[in-house]
Amino acid sequence: MNTERDPIDKQDTLSHLQAVRDLLEQGRREDAFYRLREISHLHTDDWRLQFEFGIRYFQIGALDRAEWALRQSLSERGDNATALRYLSALLSQKGDRTAAERAARISTQINPIIPPDRHDPGRPTVLRLRSIDKSYHAITWNAEQGVNECGLRRGHFSTRALIDRESVNLYTATIFGNNLIDHEGLPPFDVIVNTVSCADLKQSALSDIQRFVDHFSNIPVINPPDRVVNTTRYDIAERLRAVDGICMPRVLKTRVNASTDELIARILDGGIEPPLIMREAGTQTGSTVALIENVEDLEKALLEFESSAEIYAIQYVDCRGSDGYFHKTRAFFVDGAFYPVANLTSDHWQIHSGDRYRVMDRLPHAQKAERAYLADPLTYLGKDNFRRLAEISQIIGLDFFGVDFTVNKNGQLVIFEANAAMRHNFDHAGNFPYTAPYLRRISNAFMSMVNCRISAAGNAIERPVQPVAGRKSAVRQ
Q1: pLDDT tens digits, residue range 1-10?
Q2: What is the value of pTM for the model shown?
Q3: Is residue 1 part of a domain?
Q4: Which DSSP state fits 87?
Q5: In what order do the strands lie in the sheet with 251-255?
Q6: Residue 155 lies in a domain
Protein backbone atom coordinates (compact mmCIF):
# COMPACT_ATOMS: atom_id res chain seq x y z
CA MET A 1 0.00 0.00 0.00
CA ASN A 2 1.30 3.49 -0.90
CA THR A 3 1.10 5.67 2.18
CA GLU A 4 2.83 8.65 0.52
CA ARG A 5 0.09 11.25 0.02
CA ASP A 6 -0.01 14.97 -0.67
CA PRO A 7 -0.28 17.24 2.39
CA ILE A 8 -3.85 17.71 3.55
CA ASP A 9 -5.21 21.16 4.40
CA LYS A 10 -8.44 22.00 6.14
CA GLN A 11 -10.35 22.42 2.88
CA ASP A 12 -9.55 18.82 1.94
CA THR A 13 -10.68 17.24 5.19
CA LEU A 14 -14.30 16.61 4.23
CA SER A 15 -13.35 15.01 0.94
CA HIS A 16 -10.89 12.75 2.75
CA LEU A 17 -13.60 11.80 5.24
CA GLN A 18 -15.79 10.80 2.33
CA ALA A 19 -12.93 8.68 1.04
CA VAL A 20 -12.77 6.98 4.45
CA ARG A 21 -16.51 6.20 4.24
CA ASP A 22 -16.06 4.83 0.72
CA LEU A 23 -13.18 2.61 1.82
CA LEU A 24 -15.25 1.22 4.68
CA GLU A 25 -18.11 0.44 2.31
CA GLN A 26 -15.61 -1.46 0.17
CA GLY A 27 -14.46 -3.46 3.19
CA ARG A 28 -10.99 -1.88 3.14
CA ARG A 29 -10.69 -1.19 6.86
CA GLU A 30 -6.90 -0.98 6.96
CA ASP A 31 -6.81 1.55 4.11
CA ALA A 32 -9.58 3.51 5.82
CA PHE A 33 -7.57 3.58 9.04
CA TYR A 34 -4.44 4.98 7.37
CA ARG A 35 -6.45 7.61 5.50
CA LEU A 36 -8.27 8.62 8.68
CA ARG A 37 -5.05 8.78 10.68
CA GLU A 38 -3.70 11.38 8.24
CA ILE A 39 -6.48 13.86 9.01
CA SER A 40 -7.78 13.14 12.51
CA HIS A 41 -5.10 15.28 14.19
CA LEU A 42 -6.53 18.32 12.40
CA HIS A 43 -9.30 20.59 13.67
CA THR A 44 -9.20 19.49 17.30
CA ASP A 45 -11.45 22.46 18.12
CA ASP A 46 -14.16 21.41 15.64
CA TRP A 47 -16.59 19.17 17.55
CA ARG A 48 -18.39 18.04 14.40
CA LEU A 49 -15.23 16.76 12.75
CA GLN A 50 -13.96 15.15 15.94
CA PHE A 51 -17.31 13.40 16.27
CA GLU A 52 -17.00 12.13 12.71
CA PHE A 53 -13.43 10.96 13.34
CA GLY A 54 -14.57 9.14 16.49
CA ILE A 55 -17.38 7.29 14.72
CA ARG A 56 -15.11 6.14 11.89
CA TYR A 57 -12.40 4.97 14.28
CA PHE A 58 -15.11 3.10 16.20
CA GLN A 59 -16.26 1.37 13.01
CA ILE A 60 -12.69 0.45 12.09
CA GLY A 61 -11.91 -0.88 15.57
CA ALA A 62 -9.29 1.68 16.65
CA LEU A 63 -11.03 2.06 19.99
CA ASP A 64 -8.55 4.22 21.88
CA ARG A 65 -8.50 6.73 19.03
CA ALA A 66 -12.30 6.59 18.87
CA GLU A 67 -12.64 7.38 22.56
CA TRP A 68 -10.17 10.28 22.36
CA ALA A 69 -11.98 11.88 19.41
CA LEU A 70 -15.43 11.41 20.94
CA ARG A 71 -14.31 12.92 24.24
CA GLN A 72 -12.76 15.81 22.33
CA SER A 73 -16.08 16.37 20.56
CA LEU A 74 -18.09 16.12 23.78
CA SER A 75 -15.83 18.64 25.51
CA GLU A 76 -17.12 21.22 23.05
CA ARG A 77 -20.65 19.87 22.61
CA GLY A 78 -21.75 17.77 25.59
CA ASP A 79 -25.32 17.34 24.34
CA ASN A 80 -24.40 15.09 21.40
CA ALA A 81 -26.56 12.07 22.19
CA THR A 82 -25.01 9.89 19.50
CA ALA A 83 -21.48 10.58 20.73
CA LEU A 84 -22.58 9.64 24.24
CA ARG A 85 -24.04 6.34 23.00
CA TYR A 86 -20.80 5.40 21.27
CA LEU A 87 -18.77 6.50 24.30
CA SER A 88 -21.03 4.32 26.46
CA ALA A 89 -20.19 1.31 24.28
CA LEU A 90 -16.47 2.05 24.55
CA LEU A 91 -16.70 2.33 28.33
CA SER A 92 -18.60 -0.98 28.47
CA GLN A 93 -15.81 -2.58 26.46
CA LYS A 94 -13.29 -1.33 29.02
CA GLY A 95 -15.34 -2.78 31.88
CA ASP A 96 -16.44 0.56 33.36
CA ARG A 97 -20.13 -0.38 33.50
CA THR A 98 -21.08 2.44 35.92
CA ALA A 99 -19.71 5.16 33.63
CA ALA A 100 -21.18 3.38 30.60
CA GLU A 101 -24.67 3.32 32.09
CA ARG A 102 -24.39 6.98 33.11
CA ALA A 103 -23.44 8.00 29.56
CA ALA A 104 -26.31 5.90 28.17
CA ARG A 105 -28.87 7.52 30.50
CA ILE A 106 -27.68 11.02 29.63
CA SER A 107 -27.87 10.18 25.92
CA THR A 108 -31.45 8.98 26.33
CA GLN A 109 -32.42 12.11 28.25
CA ILE A 110 -30.99 14.33 25.52
CA ASN A 111 -32.48 12.52 22.55
CA PRO A 112 -34.29 9.20 22.88
CA ILE A 113 -35.27 8.95 19.20
CA ILE A 114 -33.00 7.73 16.41
CA PRO A 115 -34.46 8.46 12.96
CA PRO A 116 -33.67 6.60 9.73
CA ASP A 117 -30.96 8.03 7.48
CA ARG A 118 -33.71 9.35 5.24
CA HIS A 119 -37.44 9.61 5.89
CA ASP A 120 -39.46 8.60 2.82
CA PRO A 121 -43.03 9.94 3.10
CA GLY A 122 -44.17 7.22 0.70
CA ARG A 123 -43.28 4.44 3.14
CA PRO A 124 -44.98 3.33 6.34
CA THR A 125 -43.24 4.23 9.59
CA VAL A 126 -42.29 1.65 12.21
CA LEU A 127 -41.58 2.76 15.77
CA ARG A 128 -39.19 0.32 17.43
CA LEU A 129 -39.38 0.60 21.21
CA ARG A 130 -36.54 -0.32 23.53
CA SER A 131 -35.49 0.54 27.10
CA ILE A 132 -32.23 1.70 28.63
CA ASP A 133 -33.21 0.44 32.10
CA LYS A 134 -30.78 -2.35 33.11
CA SER A 135 -29.30 -2.37 29.61
CA TYR A 136 -26.06 -0.98 28.24
CA HIS A 137 -24.53 -0.01 24.92
CA ALA A 138 -21.91 -2.34 23.52
CA ILE A 139 -19.70 -2.82 20.48
CA THR A 140 -21.33 -5.21 18.04
CA TRP A 141 -19.96 -6.58 14.78
CA ASN A 142 -21.89 -6.06 11.55
CA ALA A 143 -20.60 -8.98 9.49
CA GLU A 144 -22.47 -7.87 6.37
CA GLN A 145 -20.83 -4.43 6.30
CA GLY A 146 -17.59 -5.45 7.98
CA VAL A 147 -17.63 -2.70 10.62
CA ASN A 148 -18.23 -2.24 14.33
CA GLU A 149 -21.58 -0.84 15.40
CA CYS A 150 -23.04 0.51 18.63
CA GLY A 151 -25.85 -1.71 19.91
CA LEU A 152 -27.98 -1.99 23.02
CA ARG A 153 -27.41 -5.17 25.02
CA ARG A 154 -29.56 -7.08 27.51
CA GLY A 155 -33.30 -7.58 27.44
CA HIS A 156 -34.20 -7.01 23.78
CA PHE A 157 -34.51 -8.92 20.54
CA SER A 158 -32.64 -7.63 17.51
CA THR A 159 -34.57 -6.43 14.45
CA ARG A 160 -31.54 -6.21 12.15
CA ALA A 161 -32.55 -9.33 10.22
CA LEU A 162 -36.28 -8.87 10.77
CA ILE A 163 -37.18 -5.34 9.61
CA ASP A 164 -36.36 -4.29 6.06
CA ARG A 165 -34.99 -0.75 6.31
CA GLU A 166 -35.49 -0.27 2.57
CA SER A 167 -39.27 -0.67 2.72
CA VAL A 168 -40.15 1.25 5.91
CA ASN A 169 -39.04 4.28 7.87
CA LEU A 170 -37.59 2.75 11.02
CA TYR A 171 -37.45 5.03 14.06
CA THR A 172 -35.87 3.67 17.24
CA ALA A 173 -37.22 5.16 20.45
CA THR A 174 -35.64 4.45 23.84
CA ILE A 175 -38.15 4.68 26.66
CA PHE A 176 -37.40 5.67 30.23
CA GLY A 177 -40.40 6.53 32.38
CA ASN A 178 -42.77 8.80 30.43
CA ASN A 179 -40.08 10.46 28.33
CA LEU A 180 -41.63 9.61 24.94
CA ILE A 181 -45.34 10.42 25.17
CA ASP A 182 -44.95 14.18 24.76
CA HIS A 183 -41.59 14.20 23.01
CA GLU A 184 -41.56 16.70 20.18
CA GLY A 185 -39.39 14.46 18.03
CA LEU A 186 -41.90 11.63 17.96
CA PRO A 187 -42.88 11.10 14.30
CA PRO A 188 -46.21 9.91 12.91
CA PHE A 189 -46.03 6.13 13.04
CA ASP A 190 -48.10 3.22 11.76
CA VAL A 191 -47.06 0.32 13.96
CA ILE A 192 -45.14 -0.22 17.20
CA VAL A 193 -42.62 -3.04 17.53
CA ASN A 194 -41.85 -3.66 21.19
CA THR A 195 -38.40 -5.25 21.27
CA VAL A 196 -38.18 -5.48 25.08
CA SER A 197 -38.19 -9.23 25.53
CA CYS A 198 -36.83 -10.25 28.95
CA ALA A 199 -39.58 -10.14 31.56
CA ASP A 200 -37.14 -11.14 34.32
CA LEU A 201 -35.01 -8.06 33.68
CA LYS A 202 -37.46 -5.51 32.32
CA GLN A 203 -40.58 -5.41 34.51
CA SER A 204 -40.29 -1.64 35.06
CA ALA A 205 -39.58 -0.98 31.39
CA LEU A 206 -42.58 -3.04 30.31
CA SER A 207 -44.77 -0.91 32.59
CA ASP A 208 -43.38 2.22 30.90
CA ILE A 209 -44.11 0.77 27.46
CA GLN A 210 -47.62 -0.24 28.52
CA ARG A 211 -48.39 3.38 29.44
CA PHE A 212 -47.03 4.49 26.09
CA VAL A 213 -49.05 2.04 23.98
CA ASP A 214 -52.18 2.79 26.03
CA HIS A 215 -51.75 6.44 25.08
CA PHE A 216 -51.72 5.54 21.37
CA SER A 217 -54.38 2.86 21.56
CA ASN A 218 -55.31 3.04 17.85
CA ILE A 219 -51.80 1.99 16.79
CA PRO A 220 -51.15 -1.78 16.40
CA VAL A 221 -48.45 -3.27 18.64
CA ILE A 222 -46.25 -6.26 17.89
CA ASN A 223 -45.48 -8.09 21.15
CA PRO A 224 -47.73 -6.10 23.50
CA PRO A 225 -45.99 -5.47 26.83
CA ASP A 226 -48.88 -6.89 28.87
CA ARG A 227 -48.15 -10.26 27.24
CA VAL A 228 -44.36 -10.06 27.42
CA VAL A 229 -44.54 -9.32 31.16
CA ASN A 230 -45.86 -12.85 31.77
CA THR A 231 -42.90 -14.61 30.13
CA THR A 232 -40.36 -14.90 32.94
CA ARG A 233 -38.68 -18.30 33.09
CA TYR A 234 -40.78 -19.16 36.12
CA ASP A 235 -44.05 -18.00 34.53
CA ILE A 236 -43.39 -19.95 31.34
CA ALA A 237 -42.55 -23.11 33.27
CA GLU A 238 -45.76 -22.86 35.26
CA ARG A 239 -47.98 -22.03 32.28
CA LEU A 240 -46.61 -24.77 30.06
CA ARG A 241 -47.33 -27.47 32.62
CA ALA A 242 -50.85 -27.35 31.21
CA VAL A 243 -49.61 -28.85 27.93
CA ASP A 244 -50.20 -32.59 28.04
CA GLY A 245 -47.33 -34.85 27.02
CA ILE A 246 -44.37 -32.47 27.34
CA CYS A 247 -41.49 -32.41 29.81
CA MET A 248 -41.16 -28.95 31.34
CA PRO A 249 -38.34 -28.99 33.91
CA ARG A 250 -39.26 -27.56 37.32
CA VAL A 251 -38.06 -23.99 37.93
CA LEU A 252 -37.54 -22.08 41.18
CA LYS A 253 -36.70 -18.38 41.43
CA THR A 254 -35.22 -16.89 44.58
CA ARG A 255 -33.21 -13.93 45.79
CA VAL A 256 -29.81 -14.50 47.37
CA ASN A 257 -30.88 -12.85 50.63
CA ALA A 258 -30.26 -15.61 53.17
CA SER A 259 -27.56 -17.97 54.34
CA THR A 260 -26.43 -20.69 51.98
CA ASP A 261 -28.06 -23.31 54.20
CA GLU A 262 -31.41 -21.50 53.94
CA LEU A 263 -31.05 -21.07 50.18
CA ILE A 264 -30.21 -24.74 49.70
CA ALA A 265 -33.28 -25.65 51.77
CA ARG A 266 -35.47 -23.42 49.56
CA ILE A 267 -34.23 -25.15 46.45
CA LEU A 268 -34.57 -28.68 47.76
CA ASP A 269 -37.96 -27.96 49.33
CA GLY A 270 -39.05 -26.61 45.94
CA GLY A 271 -38.63 -30.08 44.51
CA ILE A 272 -35.34 -29.42 42.69
CA GLU A 273 -32.38 -31.65 43.45
CA PRO A 274 -28.89 -31.96 41.96
CA PRO A 275 -28.02 -32.26 39.23
CA LEU A 276 -29.56 -28.85 38.57
CA ILE A 277 -28.86 -25.78 36.46
CA MET A 278 -28.25 -22.48 38.16
CA ARG A 279 -28.27 -19.10 36.46
CA GLU A 280 -28.77 -15.45 37.29
CA ALA A 281 -32.22 -14.13 36.40
CA GLY A 282 -32.33 -11.75 33.45
CA THR A 283 -29.42 -13.33 31.55
CA GLN A 284 -29.86 -15.04 28.21
CA THR A 285 -26.44 -15.88 26.75
CA GLY A 286 -25.36 -18.60 29.16
CA SER A 287 -22.64 -16.46 30.74
CA THR A 288 -23.99 -17.09 34.27
CA VAL A 289 -25.12 -20.70 33.75
CA ALA A 290 -23.63 -23.65 35.64
CA LEU A 291 -24.51 -27.32 36.03
CA ILE A 292 -24.49 -28.24 39.73
CA GLU A 293 -23.80 -31.92 40.36
CA ASN A 294 -24.20 -32.12 44.15
CA VAL A 295 -25.10 -30.15 47.29
CA GLU A 296 -21.46 -29.27 48.00
CA ASP A 297 -21.12 -27.64 44.58
CA LEU A 298 -24.46 -25.90 45.12
CA GLU A 299 -23.13 -24.26 48.26
CA LYS A 300 -20.03 -23.06 46.43
CA ALA A 301 -22.10 -21.72 43.52
CA LEU A 302 -24.43 -19.74 45.81
CA LEU A 303 -21.45 -17.99 47.39
CA GLU A 304 -20.49 -16.61 43.96
CA PHE A 305 -23.64 -14.49 43.64
CA GLU A 306 -24.09 -11.02 45.09
CA SER A 307 -26.56 -10.73 47.96
CA SER A 308 -28.96 -8.68 45.82
CA ALA A 309 -29.00 -11.14 42.92
CA GLU A 310 -32.07 -13.07 41.77
CA ILE A 311 -31.28 -16.59 40.63
CA TYR A 312 -32.96 -19.54 39.02
CA ALA A 313 -32.59 -23.17 40.00
CA ILE A 314 -33.76 -25.40 37.15
CA GLN A 315 -34.05 -29.15 37.31
CA TYR A 316 -31.52 -30.70 34.94
CA VAL A 317 -32.84 -33.25 32.48
CA ASP A 318 -30.34 -35.41 30.62
CA CYS A 319 -31.48 -35.20 27.01
CA ARG A 320 -28.75 -37.05 25.21
CA GLY A 321 -30.06 -38.74 22.11
CA SER A 322 -29.56 -42.30 20.97
CA ASP A 323 -26.39 -41.12 19.18
CA GLY A 324 -24.85 -40.12 22.53
CA TYR A 325 -24.92 -36.39 21.70
CA PHE A 326 -26.92 -33.52 23.12
CA HIS A 327 -29.42 -31.75 20.86
CA LYS A 328 -31.18 -28.39 20.86
CA THR A 329 -33.83 -27.50 18.33
CA ARG A 330 -35.15 -23.98 17.82
CA ALA A 331 -38.30 -22.66 16.23
CA PHE A 332 -39.72 -19.15 15.89
CA PHE A 333 -43.39 -18.37 15.94
CA VAL A 334 -44.26 -15.35 13.81
CA ASP A 335 -47.88 -14.24 13.92
CA GLY A 336 -48.85 -17.70 15.15
CA ALA A 337 -47.05 -19.61 12.39
CA PHE A 338 -44.23 -22.11 13.03
CA TYR A 339 -40.82 -21.51 11.42
CA PRO A 340 -37.89 -23.91 11.92
CA VAL A 341 -34.60 -22.18 12.76
CA ALA A 342 -31.91 -24.69 13.74
CA ASN A 343 -31.30 -28.21 15.00
CA LEU A 344 -27.96 -28.25 16.83
CA THR A 345 -25.85 -31.17 17.99
CA SER A 346 -23.13 -30.96 20.66
CA ASP A 347 -21.01 -33.10 22.96
CA HIS A 348 -21.82 -30.71 25.85
CA TRP A 349 -25.11 -30.18 27.67
CA GLN A 350 -24.92 -26.40 27.19
CA ILE A 351 -25.38 -26.03 23.44
CA HIS A 352 -24.45 -22.89 21.50
CA SER A 353 -24.43 -22.01 17.82
CA GLY A 354 -20.62 -22.08 17.89
CA ASP A 355 -20.87 -25.85 18.33
CA ARG A 356 -21.56 -25.97 14.60
CA TYR A 357 -17.82 -25.52 14.02
CA ARG A 358 -16.57 -27.54 16.97
CA VAL A 359 -18.88 -30.54 16.55
CA MET A 360 -21.40 -30.42 13.71
CA ASP A 361 -18.99 -29.74 10.87
CA ARG A 362 -17.43 -33.17 11.43
CA LEU A 363 -20.70 -35.07 11.96
CA PRO A 364 -22.55 -35.70 8.68
CA HIS A 365 -25.47 -37.27 10.54
CA ALA A 366 -25.96 -34.07 12.57
CA GLN A 367 -26.19 -31.92 9.46
CA LYS A 368 -28.50 -34.47 7.87
CA ALA A 369 -30.78 -34.25 10.92
CA GLU A 370 -30.82 -30.47 10.73
CA ARG A 371 -31.66 -30.55 7.03
CA ALA A 372 -34.51 -32.96 7.74
CA TYR A 373 -35.94 -30.74 10.48
CA LEU A 374 -35.72 -27.57 8.39
CA ALA A 375 -37.28 -29.18 5.32
CA ASP A 376 -40.17 -30.95 7.07
CA PRO A 377 -40.54 -30.18 10.78
CA LEU A 378 -43.94 -31.87 10.98
CA THR A 379 -42.54 -35.22 9.90
CA TYR A 380 -39.30 -34.79 11.87
CA LEU A 381 -41.06 -33.95 15.15
CA GLY A 382 -44.19 -36.00 14.67
CA LYS A 383 -47.72 -34.62 14.50
CA ASP A 384 -48.34 -34.89 18.26
CA ASN A 385 -45.23 -32.90 19.19
CA PHE A 386 -45.95 -30.40 16.42
CA ARG A 387 -49.45 -29.92 17.84
CA ARG A 388 -47.98 -29.43 21.33
CA LEU A 389 -45.71 -26.68 20.04
CA ALA A 390 -48.71 -24.98 18.44
CA GLU A 391 -50.47 -25.18 21.80
CA ILE A 392 -47.45 -23.56 23.44
CA SER A 393 -47.73 -20.70 20.95
CA GLN A 394 -51.35 -20.16 21.89
CA ILE A 395 -50.56 -20.15 25.61
CA ILE A 396 -47.70 -17.66 25.31
CA GLY A 397 -49.64 -15.42 22.94
CA LEU A 398 -46.78 -13.31 21.57
CA ASP A 399 -46.56 -12.17 17.96
CA PHE A 400 -42.88 -13.08 17.82
CA PHE A 401 -40.95 -15.46 20.07
CA GLY A 402 -38.75 -18.54 20.02
CA VAL A 403 -38.81 -21.98 21.60
CA ASP A 404 -35.74 -24.08 22.38
CA PHE A 405 -36.50 -27.77 22.84
CA THR A 406 -35.50 -31.31 22.01
CA VAL A 407 -37.18 -34.67 21.58
CA ASN A 408 -35.79 -37.25 24.00
CA LYS A 409 -35.13 -40.95 23.42
CA ASN A 410 -38.75 -41.73 24.28
CA GLY A 411 -40.10 -39.28 21.71
CA GLN A 412 -41.19 -36.79 24.39
CA LEU A 413 -40.92 -33.05 23.81
CA VAL A 414 -38.57 -31.43 26.36
CA ILE A 415 -38.83 -27.63 26.60
CA PHE A 416 -35.70 -25.67 27.52
CA GLU A 417 -37.07 -22.14 27.21
CA ALA A 418 -39.66 -20.07 25.36
CA ASN A 419 -39.51 -16.28 25.07
CA ALA A 420 -38.89 -13.39 22.69
CA ALA A 421 -35.28 -12.91 23.84
CA MET A 422 -33.82 -14.91 20.95
CA ARG A 423 -31.80 -13.40 18.13
CA HIS A 424 -32.66 -14.04 14.51
CA ASN A 425 -29.50 -13.86 12.42
CA PHE A 426 -27.63 -15.16 9.39
CA ASP A 427 -24.30 -15.50 11.20
CA HIS A 428 -23.72 -19.12 10.14
CA ALA A 429 -25.57 -19.21 6.82
CA GLY A 430 -22.36 -18.73 4.86
CA ASN A 431 -20.79 -21.89 6.31
CA PHE A 432 -24.06 -23.83 6.47
CA PRO A 433 -25.81 -22.53 3.33
CA TYR A 434 -28.68 -25.00 3.52
CA THR A 435 -30.03 -22.94 6.45
CA ALA A 436 -30.28 -19.66 4.52
CA PRO A 437 -33.64 -20.19 2.72
CA TYR A 438 -35.36 -21.03 6.00
CA LEU A 439 -33.85 -18.01 7.74
CA ARG A 440 -35.06 -15.76 4.91
CA ARG A 441 -38.57 -17.10 5.39
CA ILE A 442 -38.49 -15.86 8.98
CA SER A 443 -37.36 -12.40 7.89
CA ASN A 444 -40.06 -12.28 5.23
CA ALA A 445 -42.71 -13.50 7.66
CA PHE A 446 -41.86 -10.78 10.16
CA MET A 447 -42.12 -8.04 7.53
CA SER A 448 -45.36 -9.55 6.28
CA MET A 449 -46.72 -9.38 9.82
CA VAL A 450 -45.68 -5.72 10.11
CA ASN A 451 -47.43 -4.84 6.85
CA CYS A 452 -50.52 -6.82 7.77
CA ARG A 453 -50.82 -5.02 11.09
CA ILE A 454 -50.63 -1.66 9.33
CA SER A 455 -53.21 -2.63 6.72
CA ALA A 456 -55.60 -4.16 9.26
CA ALA A 457 -55.51 -1.00 11.37
CA GLY A 458 -56.25 1.19 8.38
CA ASN A 459 -53.12 3.25 8.98
CA ALA A 460 -51.42 2.69 5.63
CA ILE A 461 -50.07 5.90 4.09
CA GLU A 462 -52.36 7.46 1.50
CA ARG A 463 -50.60 10.82 1.23
CA PRO A 464 -47.27 12.34 2.23
CA VAL A 465 -47.12 13.10 5.95
CA GLN A 466 -44.28 15.03 7.52
CA PRO A 467 -43.36 14.68 11.20
CA VAL A 468 -44.79 17.46 13.33
CA ALA A 469 -44.20 18.35 16.95
CA GLY A 470 -46.31 17.24 19.87
CA ARG A 471 -47.83 14.02 21.00
CA LYS A 472 -50.72 14.15 18.51
CA SER A 473 -48.15 13.83 15.73
CA ALA A 474 -47.78 10.14 16.57
CA VAL A 475 -51.24 9.33 15.21
CA ARG A 476 -51.82 9.36 11.47
CA GLN A 477 -54.82 11.44 10.51
Answers
A1: 444 444 555 6
A2: 0.88
A3: no
A4: H
A5: 251-255, 310-315, 276-280, 290-292
A6: yes
